[in-house]
Amino acid sequence: MKRELTYTEAQSQEMALSALMSKVYLWMTMALAITGLTAFYVSQNLNIVAAVFSSKLTIWGLVIAELAIVWGLSSRIMRMSFATAGILFGIYSILNGVLLSSIFLLYHMDVITQAFIATAGTFGAMTLVGTFVKRDLSAIGRFLFMALIGLIVATVINIFWTNNTLYWAITYLGVLIFCGLTAYDTQKIRAIMLASSSPENYEVGMKLALLGSLTLYLDFINLFLYLLRIFDSKK
CA gyration radius for the chain? Predict the structure, then answer.
């Protein structure tokens, strides 16, 4: 039978949870800043832009490197040191920034700014939902994951089909999916942090917090990319 926590223990656990969640959002924000600064820097250097985007081999190499890092962090983070995991997250943020530098070449700055502000507001609202909603979002999360797989398949199909109606259906569905995933992932991360928020699990908690920040980082980036399409269509 599970022992009831005393008031002092519960208060201590809540403080530990708050500290870990603060790190989740701090690391996510730092990663977003690294990505944004890298993207802007690369976009202002035409030699780098040419070197990256003139070769499909280079682009695919960057994509594969990103996927390898995400897979490595997701599956092996408990086997590596926290410092190594942090460095890999930083490298991933830089690589993503290199690929996303094309945004500054394809969209006007006012569109990028508006999309970013909308993303930040929407993301913040959905994290509040995930934080304060009492209902277990696990079933919704599983449904959204299946919908995300369908979205990826539809996106790949539309690369060859290039159907405008499907393009916009994917765009608006992508916004809905990542709004839902932001709320679900926030709730899931809080539950994981709560389970590991004890002094003896400090290093484990830090690694899980880093993994949580990566998850929310990906939610933010994807939500931003879909909203960017919508804001650009208004210009």
Answer: 19
> Cα dist. 2→5, 66, 219 in Å?
9, 42, 35
- DSSP string for 147-196: HHHHHHHHHHHHHHH--HHHHHHHHHHHHHHHHHHHHHHHHHHHHHHHHT
Burial class (CB in 10 A: 0-12, 13-18, 19+), 156: exposed
Q: Structure tokens of 54?
A: 């003139």
With 80 as the cut, is the pLDDT of residue 3 above it? no
Residues 50-88 have pLDDT tens digits of 999 999 999 999 999 999 999 999 999 999 999 999 999
- Would you give the distance in Å from CA 70 to the centre of its chain? 11
110 class by beta-carbon count within 10 Å (0-12 exposed, 13-18 middle, 19+ buried): exposed
pTM exceeds 0.90, yes or no: yes
- Closest by CA position to 145, among listed 181, 191, 182: 181
**Two tokens, residue 101:** 């530098």
What string of DSSP letters covers 21-56? Answer: HHHHHHHHHHHHHHHHHHHHHHHT-HHHHHHHHT-H
